[in-house]
């Protein structure tokens, strides 16, 4: 297994920072650890944590951003999850939603299933792929100062944002959101659209 080098950001600190004072931000969590991270930052009715649908998080975010142009949408997902759905980057680049940000927590591992290396451990540059697809605001993030800049860009809503945040491959306790998909969907819809929308 290739060794990570240098000091790395801690995923739960990054996510807590990005979500502090989140206001009306709609947050989609990619399956597994990113969903545990957003829940660790505080379970929230405007979170849509995924328990499956590997490869689909960015596209769920795109649909939400197009349907809710006045809201800001943040997808927080993992490198393995994003690598499984990289075609999404092309579609998102073409659609150019101003209100969508995608943050990939890149530990260079499939953490949830036993820390097997992903391709980012071998130099695959997801931010470069996003930029080449046409997402102009695509960044590789490695420092606390860059996390703060990223947060400002997410909240500015001034164009689609993509960030590959290099994080430590740490194993952390699971912090689980509710497991019932219907509950999560109804809770999210009610918070976003009002109580009458919950069961539609
Ligand atoms: C289609 C599909 N393939 C594989 C899995 C098993 N699986 C669940 S989470 C995961 C790893 C996700 O890795 P990453 O997105 O990098 O998140 P990390 O845990 O590293 O933060 C895998 C392989 C799955 N749930 N669905
Ligand atoms: Mg990973």
Residue share in helix = 25-40%
**What is the C-level CATH assignment?**
Alpha Beta
Oligomer: single chain
Structural class: alpha/beta
Heteromolecules bound: thiamine diphosphate, magnesium ion
Estimated share of beta-strand residues: 15-25%
CATH architecture grouping? 3-Layer(aba) Sandwich
CATH superfamily: Thiamin diphosphate (ThDP)-binding fold, Pyr/PP domains
* DSSP strand count: 8
Strand count, sense and barrel status of the largest sheet are: 6 strands, parallel
Can you walk through the features of this model?
The structure is a single chain. This protein has a single domain (11-197), classed as 3-Layer(aba) Sandwich (Rossmann fold). Helices cover 38% and strands 18% of the residues. The protein contains 8 helices and 8 strands, in the order H-E-H-E-H-E-H-H-E-E-E-H-E-H-E-H. The protein has a 6-stranded parallel β-sheet with strand order 2-1-3-4-8-7, with helices on both faces. The mean pLDDT is 96. The site of thiamine diphosphate has 19 residues, from helix 2, helix 4 and strand 5.
Question: How is this structure best summarized?
Answer:
The protein is built from eight helices and eight strands; from the N terminus they run H-E-H-E-H-E-H-H-E-E-E-H-E-H-E-H. The protein has helices spanning 11-19, 33-40, 57-67, 79-84, 87-95, 126-133, 144-156, 181-193; strands at 26-29, 47-49, 73-78, 100-106, 109-110, 116-117, 137-141, 161-166. The strands form two sheets. It has a six-stranded parallel β-sheet with strand order 2-1-3-4-8-7, with helices on both faces. Strands 5-6 form a two-stranded antiparallel sheet.
């Amino acid at each position: 297994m290739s060794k990570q080098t240098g000091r790395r950001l801690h995923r739960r600190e990054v996510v807590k920072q990005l979500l502090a004072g989140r206001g009306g931000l709609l947050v989609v969590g990619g399956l597994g650890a990113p969903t545990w991270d957003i829940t660790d930052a505080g379970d929230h009715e405007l979170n849509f944590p995924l328990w499956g649908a590997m490869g689909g998080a960015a596209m769920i975010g795109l649909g939400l951003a197009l349907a809710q142009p006045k809201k800001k949408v943040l997808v927080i997902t993992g490198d393995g999850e994003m690598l499984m759905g990289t075609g999404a980057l092309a579609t998102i680049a073409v659609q150019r939603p101003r209100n969508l940000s995608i943050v990939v927590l890149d530990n260079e591992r499939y953490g949830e299933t036993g820390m097997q290396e992903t391709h980012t451990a071998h130099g695959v540059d997801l931010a470069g792929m996003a930029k080449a697809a046409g997402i102009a605001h695509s960044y590789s993030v490695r420092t606390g100062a860059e996390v703060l800049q990223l947060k400002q860009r997410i909240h500015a809503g001034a164009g689609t944002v993509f960030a590959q945040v290099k994080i430590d491959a740490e194993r952390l306790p699971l912090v689980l959101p509710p497991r019932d998909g219907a509950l999560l969907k109804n809770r999210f819809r009610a918070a976003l659209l009002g109580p009458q929308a919950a069961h539609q």
